[in-house]
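Re: [help] complex structure
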Amino acid sequence: MAIHIIDRRLNPGGKSLENRQRFLRRAKSLVQGAVKKTSQERDIKDVLEGGEVTIPLDGMHEPRFRREGGTRDMVLPGNKKFVEGDYLQRSGQGSAKDSGPGEGDSEDAFRFVLSRDEFVDLFLDDLELPDLAKRKIAQTESEGIQRAGYTTSGSPSNISVSRTVRRAMARRIALKRPSKDEIEELESMIASCTDDDERLLLLAQLDKLKAKSKRIPFIDPIDIRYRRYETVPKPVAQAVMFCLMDVSGSMSEHMKDLAKRFYMLLYVFLKRRYKHVEIVFIRHTDRAEEVDEQTFFYGPASGGTLVSSALQAMHEIVRERFSPADWNIYAAQASDGDNSYSDGELTGMLLTDKILPACQFFAYLEVGESGGSAFDLSDSSLWTLYERLRNSGAPLSMRKVSERSEIFPVFHDLFQRRETSQEKAAP
Amino acid sequence: MTERLFEGADWDFHTLQRITDACEEVAENDLGLDVYPNQIEVITAEQMLDAYSSVGMPLFYKHWSFGKQFAYHEASYRKGLMGLAYEIVINSSPCISYLMEENTATMQTLVIAHAAFGHNHFFKNNYLFKQWTDADGILDYLDFAKTYVMQCEERYGRVEVERTLDAAHALMSHGIDRYPGKKKLDLRAEEKRAGRRRQHEEEVFNDLWRTVPKGAAKSKSALSLERRRKLLGLPQENLLYFLEKSAPRLAPWQRELLRIVRHIAQYFYPQSQTKVMNEGTATYVHYRIMTKLHQQGRITDGNFLEFLGSHTNVVFQPEFDDPRFSGFNPYALGFAMMQDIERIVARPEAEDREWFPDIAGKNDVMGVLRDVWANYRDESFIAQFLSPKLMRQLRMFHLHDDPEERAGIRVDAIHDERGFRRVRRELARQYDVGYIDANIEVVDVDLSGDRRLILHHHVVKGAQLNETDAKRVLQHLADLWTYDVSLIEVDSNDKVLREYVVSPRPITAAA
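Output below.
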C-alpha cells in the first residue's frame, strides 16, 4: 500500500487569518472598546505590545438548544465508601461542578490575545496620515514572493501539471509514440483479418508499435516542470519624524511628559504606516542641538528660548540627510509657548520658506501646567505667531494640552480622516 | 528484523516511512486491520491551531465563528493552559493524519499507530461511519462547500451569507437524520447536483415570468391535518432539512447553504456517537503495535519507557472526587474495555462465562474485537460489553439527583451483584445520543392561517431548555422561516410546560 508522507510545515501559515479577521470585524466595536480600556491602564510605552483583551460575549455568542435542570443520573468512577441507598448532601447550590467546566467561564466574557499589529490597528483605527505620497526603495527588508516561470526541480507540491503534460505531449509527438487509437485500430484490423500472411505482417507491426510505446514513456521525468517562485524586494516607504522641544527652564517635568506622550503616539502611528521610521530629536534653548532620546527627555539644560534655532537645525539636517524627495517628513514641536519677541520674524520666515514646504505634516503642541486655565487668559507669543501664519494659509496643525488625558483626544483630533478634518480649528 | 527503527528522539522523513511500514506490518499480520490508504502530514503548532479552528478539517468554508475558536485556542495555548493534540486524523480516503513536528520519534510511532491504523480501521469498518459518511467524497465536498460559500458571498454579500450561516450553525445539532432509511450520502454526486441545478436555473431563466400577473389566490384547500402533515413529512426532527425543503421564502442559495451545514453535521454525527469506542480502538491498537515493535527489538527499552509514560497519561482516569475529574476519559474507558474483552476472550473466569457466553473463551481475540469495532456504537458497546470485573476495578457507582428529593443525591447502585446491570444500563444511557440532544421536532405548520411553525420539545426527566439560548436559536429559526415560530415544551404526559413564540426580524434591521 502506498503511504504518502507530506511535509506541510512549509505551507504558508495564517490559514485562519481570514476567519480571525472576520471575527475581529464582527466584534469590532466591542474589541475597540476593550482596546481603549486596556490602553488606558497601560504605560504608553507598552501600547505597542498588543496582548490580551476581554470582550463581553454578548454579540459573539453562538446559541444552541441546551437543556438544564431536571433530574439527573450519572455514573462515576472511584466509589470508596458508598453503598446503595446512601444519600449524599448537595454541596451548596446544587452540584454546580457538573455543569461542565469552562462553560460558565465562557458565558459572560471572552478572552483572547490580539497581536501587536491588530492592537495598534484598532487603537488607531479611523485615523489617517496626511500625504502618504513618496515611495522609494530604501531598505530591502521587505521581500515578497512572486511567480517566476518554471524550473526542472522543485518540491512535488509545486508541480505544474499542465506544463508537464504539455511537454510530455510534445515529446510523444516528436518521437512519434504510437497513440492508443492507432494500436486499437491495428488490433481490430488483426481481429477482422482473414489472410494469414497479412495477419502475420500486421502482428509484427503491432509488436513494433507496442515496443515503441513502451520505450517512449507517457510521461518522462524530463517532462516534469515545477512552478518557480522568487523573492523580490518590495518598495518600502520611509519616514522621518522630527521631535522639536523647548527645554529651557520654563518647561516643567509635567510639560515634558505631555510632549513625550505625544511623540510616542506619533511614533506608533508612523510605524504602522511606514516600515522604516527614523526619529530625530532636536532640543533647543537659545541654541539647538540634535541629541539622543535619553538626553532629549531627561538631560538638563537651561538658557533662553529661541525657536528659530531649532528650525534652523532641522532645516540643516533635512538638507544633509533626508532629502524631501525620498523621505516623508513629519515634525512635531512641543513648547510652552515662550519665545523671544525678537525671534518671531526669523521663526516665521524659516517655517514658511524652508520647513513647511519640505514637510508632510507639522504639528505644534503647546503644553501647559496641569489645571492650566492660564491658557484662557492670553495666547502665548509662539501661539500668536503660528496662528497668524496659519491664518495666512500655512499648513500648520496646532493644539493646546495641559492634561495627560487630553493627549489621545488631541492626537485623534489631529489625524482624523481627512473628509472630516479639512480645516482644523483651534480648540 | 531486529534493526532499530530509529535511535534517540530525532526523526526524518525516511524514519517516518520506516515507522509506518513497521506499523503496517504489525497492523496487517498481527491485528488483521483493514485500513484506507494513509496520508501522513507533518505540521507545525500554528498549523495545528489552524486545524483546531476548522473542526480538524484541512479545508472549510470561511466563517467568523472559526476565527473565534482560533482566538480562543490560541489564547489558552499561549498561556500554557492547553497542550495541543499530538495528532488529528480525518475520516477520509486517503485517511489523513496530521503529526506535530515537535513530537519525538517515539511519539511519532505512537501517533502513527494510533491514528493511521487505529482510527483509520475504525473509520473504514464501523457501521455508523459506513452508513453516514462518505470518506471518498468528503474532501471534495468541503472544497465545493468552500467555493460555494465564497461565490455566494460575492453574489449576495457577506452579511447575507453570514446571517444564513449563523442561523444554520445554531440549528446544526438538529440538522441530523438520526435514523437510516434515506439512501447513503454520495457527496461527489451532491456537488454535481448543485452545479446542475444552478445551470438549469440559468437555462430556464426568463424574465417575462416576472411580469405575468398572479392569479387569484387558490381557494383554501381543506387539507386534513393528517394529510398536511404527511405532505410536509411531519413530524420532522431534522430542522435544517425541513427548512431547506419547506421554508417558503428562502432563496435557492440559502437552501444550498443549509444543505451544506446539514451534510457536515451529518458527517460528524458518527464521531459523537463513538468517542469511547473510537479512542478505545485506537489506543488498543497503538498499545499492541508498540508492544510488538518492542518485542521485535525495533524500538529500544528507553523509547518504550517513553511510550509507556505518554500512554499512561493518555489513559489516566481521575476518580470522581479528584479535582481533575471531568467525566469519564474516553481513552481510559475505551482502552480498559478493549483490554477487558481481550481478557474475556482469552482467559475468562466463571463470572465472564456467565455474563458473556458468546465470546468468553473463544480465543480469537482479534476476530471478536474487529467484530465489536464494526458493529457497535458507544451506547450498545457499553450496554453489552462492560463487565462486572471492570466495574469493580473502576469502582463505578450510580447517582440519582432529583431536585425534589430533600435528603440529597441518592446512590442508586454500586458495583455489587445487585447493581452491575443498573450501573451498566445507566452508563450506556449517558452515551445515548437520543438522551444527549434535546428531542425537538417540527409537528405542524398552520398553512391556512398565519403560517406559524410549531415545534415540540419532548422534555425528558424534567430538563427544559436554557431560556436565553432557546430564544436566540428560535430567533434564527424564525428568520429562516420568515413567519412566526412557536416552540412548546411538553412532558411525557403531554402537559405543556412552557411556550415560546418568536417573530422573524425584519431583514433590513438585521442586515
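Residues 376 and 485 of chain B are 38 Å apart (CA to CA).
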